[in-house]
Design goal:
Layout lengths: L1 H6 L3 H10 L12 H10 L7 H5 L14 E2 L3 E6 L5 H10 L16 E5 L5 E5 L4 H9 L7 E7 L6 H12 L4 E6 L8 H10 L12 E4 L8 H15 L2 E2 L6 E10 L3 E10 L2 E2 L3 E4 L2 E9 L8 E2 L4 E7 L8 E5 L2 H16 L11 H10 L4 E8 L2 H13 L6 E9 L4 H10 L1 E6 L7 H8 L3 E4 L2 H12 L8
This protein binds guanosine-5'-diphosphate.
The site of guanosine-5'-diphosphate (GDP) has 16 residues, from α5.
Keywords: Cytoplasm, GTP-binding, Initiation factor, Nucleotide-binding, Protein biosynthesis
Family: Belongs to the TRAFAC class translation factor GTPase superfamily. Classic translation factor GTPase family. IF-2 subfamily.
Protein name: Translation initiation factor IF-2
Amino acid sequence: SEIATMMDVSTTEIISACMSLGIMVTMNQRLDAETLSIVADEFGYEVEFVAADLEETIKIAADAEKDLKPRAPIVTVMGHVDHGKTSLLDYVREANVIAGESGGITQHIGAYGVTLKDGQKITFLDTPGHEAFTAMRARGAQVTDIAVIVIAADDDIMPQTKEAISHAQAANVPIVFAINKIDRSAANPDKIKEGLSQMNLLVEDWGGKIQSQDISAKTGEGVEELLEKVLLEAELLELKANPDKIANGTVVEAFLDKGRGYVSTILVQGGTLKIGDYVLAGTHSGKVKAMQDERGNSIPTAGPATPISILGLDGAPQAGDKFNVLEDERDAKQIATKRSQLRREQSVRTQRHITLDEIGRRIALGDFKELNIILKGDVDGSVEALTDSFQKLSTEEIQVNIIHKGVGAITESDVLLASASDAIIIGFNVRPMGNARDVAEKEEIDIRMYSIIYDAINDLKDAMEGMLSPEI
Ligand code: GDP
């Protein structure tokens, strides 16, 4: 009815226009972006999406090739619980004497940079785990360049190891494996490498291309070599940024400090941030009053791939929020206010994820080329059988990708991955666990549960042919 009023036509006309597109709607239903565009077009209008665009209001001009300078890689450490992620991050943090820098890293600001002997730098995100990584991605922030996946050599390739691998792959982020705890007598790095090869992940010693390094996060053995391999991987990525412009980047974390006010750690991704700049970060804004690095040093400027904590924002933005420097303080304030209004209006959603019912229509519209699926099942056999069958449903128009599969209940991390990668979740004889259902509802992720293989395959096939009748 809102769009009817805007175009000055009757609601019935909108409803019948939708019907002719094969969509049954009621007066109070929200239409998605494509439907809105098509319906408006029928009546000779063009839709401009103001709300959806708001997050993008700050357009960053593309940089000229000549302005781009090499920048440090940004690394996230992932892996199964207790395999040594924190120990590795701590070791690297403390061993930063590698470069003979005076004063260790004293502050936990959510990210830190290290300089190696030859002067090369690496930036580590200090929140290990694929959940944090994918939660950021679900908010639209792609920060990580390289994922270091830690696997304990005295254990097996565990479910969360597999998850971490899927999450990195779904984000298209190259992996470097760190086979950890080799100081332990029970360590068997070869067994881990063999396990990886069975998952089609061939590390270099096994004739493949994926880098891997045996390490001990406890004694430090192999850690330097690991960092060198990370740099090698970074070289292939040719990471560059333009330092000579106003800054933009992503919020890593933020909190309220009783004495200092709101402290936000941000990662500069382009340009250089200076004290005195007007910053817009998510729904907050402010003038940068002070900047500190991870060593507690006050610094006047911060260039690409530098993590810093800043003072001066009027609130705590969320991890994964983008930040931009604006010329005008008032602009920054205005946009921040507008954004928080929008976020408050819960009904205004800027992101809606694919559902099984919608697939047929999206394919018909021609803008949908890949269907991402997360598949969880009770036993390996059915997961493999479904993977095969689903993949065989791929057609010339649409490719079916199983971006993650595993045995076990549907977890919150599955839902986050679905949100970050616009995927649907299919559960075979398993259900959502813990928070997963709530998060799925909030993120509008379609979870389908089946107990008969044939039904799952048929539903997907029907959906892809646009034949699925909507779920009542
Ligand atoms: P996370 O859960 O992946 O962050 O794992 P932690 O870093 O907390 O490590 C889990 C346990 O393994 C701790 O008790 C560590 O001391 C131990 N640990 C981690 N790395 C090593 C290692 O290289 N050698 C040995 N012997 N123990 C390690």
